[in-house]
Amino acid sequence: MLRLFFYFKGKKMNIEKIRQLNDSFRKSFNSGRVVITPCVQSLTDDDRNELIKQVQEFDNFTEDNDPYGEHDFGAINFKNDTYFWKIDYYDTDYNYFSPAPSDPNVTNRVLTIMRGDEY
Q1: What Å distances lie between residue 101 and 23, 40, 68, 96, CA to CA?
Q2: Between 20 and 30 A from 36 (CA), which of 46, 51, 85, 99?
């Protein structure tokens, strides 16, 4: 099995663990926060729920949209618009970036869903 690692602020990160944590969070919205932008909020309830469902079910990861293999970003075409979702890693107080995104004990995830023109 190939294990991918990268270094973040001098610390070795396990890409497989980050990917697993990101996929779990995105699919369940447990153990983190979800933020939607005004354009997403302005959708009808049914459309917003469908967009959220598509974010949770997203699995179209390629080298182009996921070059580091973290599964932390995606683009969805929905109702003639492009929507992005992005996962960021924060410390346990949500004040700073996480010191170790592969460690759930020191990392809170935030998933933001936005229409493309809000990026």
Answers
A1: 13, 27, 13, 12
A2: 99
What number of CA atoms fall less than 13 Å from residue 40's CA on the CB side? 23
CA distance 89 to 111: 9
95 secondary structure, DSSP code: S
Residue 1: predicted pLDDT: 41
pTM: 0.88
CA–CA separation, 99 vs 108, rounded Å?
A: 11
Pick from 106, 108, 68: which is nearest to 88 by CA?
108
Map residue 62 onto helix, strand or coil. Answer: coil
